[in-house]
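Quick one, T. Sequence first:
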Amino acid sequence: MKPRQSRPRLIQAMVDAFRLPDLRKRILITFGLLIAFRFIAHIPLPGVNPTALADLFKSNAMLGMLDMFSGGALRNFSVAAMGVYPYITSTIIIQLMQPVIPALQRMSQEGEAGQNKVNRISHWLTIPLAGISGYGQIILLQREGAIAAAGPLAMVSMVASLIAGTVFLVWLGELITEYGIGNGISIIIFAGIVTGYPAMFGSLGLAWSQNAIGVFIFGLILLATIVFIVLFTEAHRRIPVQYARTTFRGGRMYRQTGGTHIPLRVNTAGMIPLIFSMSLVVFPGMIASFFMNPAGTTPNIANAIYNIFNSGTALPLGLVYWILYFLLTIAASFFYTMVIFQQQDLPGTLQRQGGFIPGIRPGKNTESFLNNVINRITLAGSLFLGIVAIIPFISRGVTNVQTVQLSSVGLIIVVGVVLDTMKQMEAQLTMRRYEGFIK
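Structure tokens:
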């Protein structure tokens, strides 16, 4: 036992995990499926101009966000260029439509069977969304000269390939969920983001010779942001709950009591508000890019709109993008949290299960109390997301490092997936009476 205690806890937990045949099998399956994903991400569609494609990505923030979800496949415009983004969009749409469409709401309340039906609808909706997104991306890239013009048959073939790539990645994600470790879709996104970090650190190394102090401050901001994200991702408010049940045994009545708590997360919405608000902010500029006059000619109103809704525009005009991004992130955080909270129906669940909050009457009083609590903690969570959203702007202004830009959405996804995977690993180890990661 002494050698085990002398090792660092994280290393020992990984050693223990690989000693278990079934857990080792899950880890190896996860790595194998991720390798398959990376192979698919490097199979390009025909007619791509790499130089023009690289120049386009430097000037379009929306494409950069979509490239992050595709794991770099969009930058190569491979068959997996759409990534799992259409599936995420489909899931969000179905989730937001549940309070509006009674049939979906009833399905979601039918337990596991109902949830499987909702997931099936999300899968079917993914196909047209992937087709529309793929067609739009092809037209945009053709307009910018990044892809050669194609006839109707070639266009159908390219769109079908993009749809197949998205469906294949979703299937890989579900295989990871079932046979591997953690949420497969999140792990695929995580793997795609992490693959871009070596290039980022390489760019930082080149910038060190020109601006060492700026790069050092950039590193401090990066570490502080990670700590900030971990604190707010794990933060929650515990609401105490008491249960009182009456049971009959042998003709006698017995009263049973017990206590637990409801953990209300400060950041219930996760990274969804960041994605939603970025899409809204970038969308006008993306539409305006279709009607802009070429560089060197007299700019029109489309050029002005593009500059307003472009994250790379110089100050003071560039402030408009970041202020809108900040405010929309806060608004989206409140909206999405309220939708999720209403779907959970915690007051009704407590009342049906015989639970109550000490000092609060069941029914309307409990609902009002929980709404007040969720509003207060969501204010903190939304401000957190808003600050994380504008950290790239702050870091660029403070450090003057222009070659590397922090991705707030990417950091939240990476930190969240790491924490979730660690918890699942610890749960697996705890079931087998091994020591896990977390105290």
